[in-house]
Design goal:
It is built from 22 helices and 6 strands. It is mainly alpha-helical. Strand 5 and strand 6 form a beta hairpin. Helix 5 packs antiparallel against helix 6.
Length: about 575
């Protein structure tokens, strides 16, 4: 009777625990989705405008590897995110700008939900995963935009999940998932396709180090040499004494190895800081990675997946675009805090870390310091490692601390507080954007373009414009000097001798006299920010070569009189 009662209580407690996890999980997904939507900007980013037009162009001419939107003749264009461009155009064609905004909200929510699910699966803790997911979305809020990178953020999260699961049980579905994602990234955003293989490297590096350690510790090379020597001497009586000597030597090594093996197994179970694991499934993961390397051929872009990154690194564009510049760590409080937290946990606690996780976090940190845009990868991928470390820390220093915290949160009061906090934060971040327009007229020349289209013959005009709003000019059907497709205007990609991108950089910074650039490119008209250096010089000097045709609060349009 008593045993039955105890058993029933255990079953009831287990059901209650399962129900609590289910309810918390559903609530967490809903709240994360709301939070992500609140973080999504209403105003569109400059890349979105050319994305729409390129998608439209693909429906007309296909992928012809030529630019159609600059007045520079015969520029080669690689269509680095052609599939995303096409999807974005179809959404815009069906639902206008509202469709683009809604699509971005959905992708943002999917990113947040994916982060939460994968964190929960890997770290096995819903509460910490929920908190860290919200923190990551907050940190990378500036990179949530209607751009191809938002889709690849989601795919990279699932790559880590598939790798971890494949190493755990080597099921074919995870390998297939990796190949499918690699193919998608090669078509959605080819510039980041090589990063997929960076994510494989920590696991492979750990495996190789484990093999090297085995070779050194167990003297396997020496054993192989002894066995080879014995085999060469064969059964000849001439070498009988030497063979016996080598056999005795081999037995001593084997006996010593047995003692080392017992001691090493104990050490590996409880290492000082770093867990080194020789997972045999890594051999199969390497094969999967090699297969993924061939998915770059499954695009209409030729060899672009294999050459794009190399060409980009060869040029000057990464040195002059803000998001590609090295990160100034004092300006990135959240990233600095994360690094300090990781170092503190590893230095001042008994928490242990897998060698592959250490390689992962170190590699991501290196990439982030080299390029500020990689703070996104540091957060999105690095949070999976940090989650495991925090859970390990709490389990080590608290007695059932995580379970107690989870029980408190999953009470009625806990749920109410959780909902109120997340909804309050969501409203706090959404409220300033409530009245925003899809197109911010302080950033993009909406009225100036209206004037140009009504009053200037575009067939005979060659406009000089600036980088940040060139995409909007394309969207309005005005051929441009430059736009935010920076690589297009670099000689590594354009097939031209002129470095159009650097000519713009030097002209906009007044490193080159603007008139010299305009003569070189036979400019007929200029559209510029009202507060740009060039505009201030033209106005202060009353330059007679420029006739002001239009001006509003943000932009000025000139006709260049000297041809």
């Amino acid at each position: 009777m008593f045993k039955t009662k105890v058993k029933d209580e255990k079953i009831e407690n287990k059901k209650e625990k399962v129900n609590s996890k289910l309810i918390f999980g559903i609530l967490a997904v809903i709240l994360i989705a709301i939070f992500c939507i609140a973080m999504t900007p209403v105003s569109l980013q400059n890349d979105t405008f050319y994305t729409i037009k390129i998608g439209e162009q693909i429906t007309k001419t296909g992928i012809d590897m030529q630019d159609h939107f600059s007045w520079h003749e015969d520029l080669a264009y690689t269509y680095p995110h052609w599939l995303y461009d096409l999807i974005t155009y179809y959404v815009y064609a069906a639902f206008d700008m509202t469709g683009i905004y809604v699509m971005t909200c959905i992708l943002s929510a999917i990113l947040g939900i994916s982060l939460y699910i994968v964190n929960t699966k890997i770290a096995k803790n819903q509460l910490i995963s929920f908190i860290l997911t919200a923190m990551v979305i907050y940190i990378i809020r500036g990179y949530i935009a209607a751009r191809a990178q938002l889709v690849t953020f989601i795919l990279f999260v699932w790559i880590i999940y598939f790798i971890e699961m494949f190493l755990k049980n080597r099921k074919i579905r995870y390998a297939v998932g990796l190949v499918v994602i690699s193919t998608l990234v090669a078509n959605l955003h080819v510039a980041v396709w090589p990063f997929i293989f960076v994510l494989f490297l920590p696991y492979i590096a750990e495996y190789l180090i484990a093999i090297i350690a085995d070779l050194a510790i167990y003297r396997k090379i020496n054993m192989l040499l002894i066995k080879a020597d014995i085999k060469l001497m064969g059964n000849s009586e001439k070498y009988a004494a030497r063979v016996q000597k080598q056999k005795d030597k081999l037995q001593k090594i084997l006996a010593k190895n047995e003692k080392i093996k017992i001691k090493r197994e104990e050490d590996l179970k409880n290492p000082y800081k770093i867990r080194l694991q020789k997972n045999p499934n890594v051999k199969w993961l390497i094969i999967v990675m090699i297969i993924c390397a061939f998915t770059g051929l499954l695009t209409p872009l030729g060899d672009t997946p294999y050459t794009y990154l190399y060409k980009t690194m060869q040029g000057n564009t990464t040195e002059n675009i803000n998001e590609h510049l090295p990160m100034t760590i004092v300006d990135e409080t959240e990233a600095l805090s994360a690094i300090v937290l990781i170092l503190a946990i590893l230095t001042f606690t008994k928490t242990k870390i897998k060698l592959s996780d250490l390689f992962m976090i170190a590699g991501l940190c290196y990439l982030m310091l080299g390029s500020r845009r990689q703070v996104t990868m540091f957060c999105i991928i690095g949070v999976l490692v940090v989650n495991k470390m925090i859970c390990g820390l709490l389990e080590l220093y608290t007695k059932n601390g995580l379970e107690k915290a989870f029980k408190i949160v999953t009470t009625k009061v806990g749920y109410v507080l959780m909902i109120l906090i997340m909804l309050g934060l969501s409203y706090h971040f959404y409220e300033p954007k409530e009245d925003d327009e899809y197109i911010d007229e302080s950033d993009y020349p909406v009225q100036a373009c209206d004037f140009i289209l009504e009053n200037i013959d575009l067939e005979n005009a060659r406009f000089y414009n600036e980088y940040n709003y060139g995409s909007y000019l394309i969207f309005r059907g005005i051929p441009v000097f430059i736009d935010s497709r920076a690589d297009l205007y670099a000689p590594e990609f354009s097939g031209k001798d002129e470095d159009i991108f650097m000519d713009f950089i030097n002209t906009s910074s007044i490193g080159t006299f603007y008139e010299d650039t305009f003569k070189k490119y036979d400019i007929t008209h200029v559209i510029t920010y009202k507060n740009s250096k060039m505009n201030m010089i033209i106005q202060k000097t009353n330059d007679p070569n420029y006739k002001q045709l239009y001006q509003d609060n943000y932009f000025t349009v000139y006709e260049r009189l000297t041809k």
